[in-house]
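Handout, section B. The chain below has 453 residues.
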Amino acid sequence: MNERFFEKSKNQKLLIDKFNEEFVKKDETFLNSDNNKFIEISSSLAYYSSLFTSLKRFLEYVSLVSKYLINQEFSLIIPLDENGEIWLDHISLSGNATHKDYISEVRHFIVRSNLSNKFRIKNITTLEKFLKRSNPLNKLISYQIKSRGKCRGFFYVFHDNLSKKNSFLEERKVSFLIDTLAMAIENYSLSVENKRHENTDREISSGAEIQSRLLPDFCPKIFGVNLAAHCRPALQLGGDYFDFMSIKPNLVEKRRQKGRWALVIGDVMGKGVPAGLLMTMLRGMLRAEVLTGLPPDRILHDLNQLAIYDLDQSHRFVTLFYSDYDPRTQKLRYANAAHKLPFLWKHKEQKIAKLDAEGFVIGLQKDAEYTCGEVQLNNLDIILYYTDGITEATNNLGERFGEKNLKLIFSELCKKNLSSQEILNQIFKKLDDFSGKKNQLDDDASIVIFKLE
């Protein structure tokens, strides 16, 4: 490890030496007795800039170097952070013991003048007036530290009032310092921003993991039913939701399997973090409502009453299809909050029907009413619940997968005596073939397959 480090350091030093050699060659003015000191200092500064991890320490180092590199009484560096605000904690000062308290005075003035809050470049004149007023015996020269057209801070040099005008060589040295400062401040701002993004990504990944655990890990055993379900989010966090809930969860396993079950699929408008948070909230509310054992239309009515305030505040709404199934009678009751209508494959008739019931989206109208539908199911009947991420998926030509295409594929698969999981896998395979495996879905896509054995 040490050998690699020293080899890297050696290579860096060679590059820096080459840079400085070319830098000096650009102007014959640099070829004087002061060059050796300049090259030595600039080399150490450039080398240190590639290694520093603390911007504050680096700015202090630049301040120290400026004392030996340019003619001055003292100098002041005022950097701006990634948001363009004055970086109070990173203000640096060069000078002797008589100036040690001046940096505190500058910071106090910035705070008192409200320059540390919503700073604008034009406001710097207020600070510069203070700097001149508080140093009447010095001549102040100000420089703006710029990188890629953006102001990264300010560099102030205080001279003796009797000092002569800066030479061309002196200006080139100042220019070198400013370029170094601009590079360092920008790089550090970028590293802070990258770290913030990394932390956000980690939080989103954790949220996505928690959310995935809120969706059922496996399909429950319901007497006489073969289930399969899968959600494929467009982003890490998704707004799609499906669930299976026993109406009476306290029953023993065998009795619970033969008891009534709620099957639900929903879609929060949008995707990503906001949709994921609202989906999680809705899940908790719905699970509490299911335990009441009320009919599907009453469940959606009460859920709308509970969720409408939060949804209204977020300017979003939710589509939801709620159904409950009784294994003893093979009857399915359902209500719909403007969700995509599930397809019902009727095995005896070898045709597809839609489970339709009127109702508004959740979160749109406070007094929304819902209707309750009911259907008698028979052995080998199959229901396909899905979200619009399936039908609205597009290919490279911009064509949509479409409801008609999904209906045709589902019909063909139902004729093959496949399991629910096989039907689900085949639908997603057809979706991938259509959109292309490298083509990211435009929206979250979820499917639930319910098949009577």
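Note. The radius of gyration is 34 Å. Compare this with the example in section A.
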